[in-house]
Amino acid sequence: MRAIVSTLTLASLLAFGATVATAQPAAYTGPSQTPQAGSHGSYSGPSNVPLMTVKQLLDTGRDDQHARLQGRIVSHDGGDNYSFEDATGRIAVEIDDKDFPAGQTVSAEQRVELLGEFDKGLRKTEFEVDRITLLR
């Protein structure tokens, strides 16, 4: 019985290690060209979430308010932190690798629409991205 448990434990650890070894961090220009396992489709119809400018969001946005922004991701600031800008200003944004469009790269010149939630804190204000859509 002990040998069976040890064998199962070893097999589990090897499987976990193989999964971790194949995961690739996304570069600023977007996630890996390999589709992510378990990725889901997303809704692409009309939305009641307001389209705002960076200035409007910073001036009048409420904590936890949902919004859409259109502009460019202009820099990767480390980890999940990026800077986003439109014609009215710049804001810090948090983007998980899984929120980049699967199989597509995003450059600093590419116009995008960000759908997410405004996080207005005492020390830090940022926009937490739920979805990125490439604009033409």
Automatic annotation (TrEMBL):
<protein>
    <submittedName>
        <fullName>NirD/YgiW/YdeI family stress tolerance protein</fullName>
    </submittedName>
</protein>
<dbReference type="InterPro" id="IPR005220">
    <property type="entry name" value="CarO-like"/>
</dbReference>
<keyword id="KW-0732">Signal</keyword>
<feature type="region of interest" description="Disordered">
    <location>
        <begin position="29"/>
        <end position="49"/>
    </location>
</feature>
<dbReference type="Pfam" id="PF04076">
    <property type="entry name" value="BOF"/>
</dbReference>
<feature type="signal peptide">
    <location>
        <begin position="1"/>
        <end position="23"/>
    </location>
</feature>
<dbReference type="InterPro" id="IPR036700">
    <property type="entry name" value="BOBF_sf"/>
</dbReference>
<feature type="compositionally biased region" description="Polar residues">
    <location>
        <begin position="30"/>
        <end position="47"/>
    </location>
</feature>
